[in-house]
Structures are given as C-alpha cells and as structure tokens.
Design goal:
88 residues, mainly alpha, 4 helices
C-alpha cells in the first residue's frame, strides 16, 4: 500500500480546517489531494484529536504484537504436536 505524504497528525489538522468551515474543494486544492482521498480521511480520522490518535496507534501496535505472539505459539504448538505424533 502506498504511503501517504501526510502524517496522521497533519491529516487530523486538515480535517479540523474542514470542521471550522473551510470548503472541501478549497482544502483539496490547497493540499493537492483528491476529494475521494479527503472523504476517506474523514471516514477514518473524523472526530479524532491528538490524544485519540496516540491511543489508536498504541492499540494497533499492541494488536500486531499479540498477533505475532499467537503465530509463534501456534507454530510451536504445531511442531510439538508433530513430534508427539511421530513418536506414536
């Protein structure tokens, strides 16, 4: 997936401009983004502030860490199961 040239904090600030009354067309022209991109950002980050963004990022990191842990344990479990089956 292509990395955005805008950080999440910048996106939140752009959306705050929209909430303060600036038109979508003006925002898109100023920042060089398309209207669909703006609306995707609005759907994903709408109503967030910096604190919510930090919490979201922390939860995403924890989720990925837990998924890796589960994958490792699942692999270990499968290896041990295969070893037991070979002995029988």
């Amino acid at each position: 997936m292509k990395k955005s040239k805008f950080s999440e904090h910048q996106i939140v600030n752009i959306l705050k401009e929209y909430e303060s009354g600036k038109s979508t067309k003006d925002i898109c022209r100023e920042y060089g983004i398309s209207a669909p991109t703006f609306y995707q950002w609005k759907q994903k980050y709408g109503g967030m502030d910096a604190q919510h963004l930090k919490e979201l990022k922390a939860l995403q990191e924890e989720n990925s860490r837990l998924k890796r842990m589960f994958a490792d344990l699942s692999l270990d479990h499968r290896i041990l199961k295969d070893i037991i089956e070979k002995k029988l």
